[in-house]
Amino acid sequence: MQIQVNDVVLTVEDRGAGRPLLFIHGYPLSRRLWEPQLEGLADVAYLIAPDLRGHGDSGSTSGPYSMDLLAEDCHALLDVMGVKEPVVLCGLSMGGYITFAFYRKYPERVAGLILAATRAGEDSPEGKANRDKAANLARQGGPGAIAESMLPKMLAPKTYNERPELVQSVWEMMHSTSLEGILGDLMGMKSRPDSTPTLKQIDKHTLILHGSDDQLISLRDAVSMRAATSGAQLRVILDAGHLVNLEQPEQFNLAIRGFLKEL
Ligand code: MLT
To answer: Is the full-model pTM beyond 0.85?
Structure first.
């Protein structure tokens, strides 16, 4: 379905019934990231998976897309969809950065947090310079050049060896991100604040999920988040890279089922 929020039309998929669970995808991905969760968890929650602005089938605007702006889109989306109950947020990577922004702005709307393949820190000076390099690459070569450069880092070695169809679908997802979306995200992530102080303020159930073979965000970041967040649980999922929910969907979904039961 398509829903106007703020100054953009977002495409959203929803499924199931019960406690609302909002899935926030990463960069440069789309709601298709969450297909195994939409298929596997509809019996336990009301699942909502939008394409963020500039991604998938949603409209684009020119950037930068600050993490606050993307969190405001998510919040407005819940309002338009009539979701009044506090939601569980599940953000992967950039989706995690947006989850932190959402929590800071709207803590009363949050029932729990699932932080997948993400980190709390801001970009290092080298990381910021890499955002500029990626933006130049995108301007010159379009989304295809970004997809080519990121594909070798997104998944675990086992996934590249054994699941060529999944590798292809990740490439297509990245390739379908608009140039405006890529540039908007890059500039937004580059200037995102350090969310480490937010971890100390979190007073909601928190589950951290991380792939053992994540090449983009180190497992050490997940361990640090766990240490800084009171009561958070960390599950390390073996034979999974950055797209842990796609690579090991059964384990990822099982962890979410357990988490929802505990809430
Ligand atoms: C993502 O998967 O969302 C990005 O790789 C995160 C980042 O570049 O910091």
So the answer is: yes
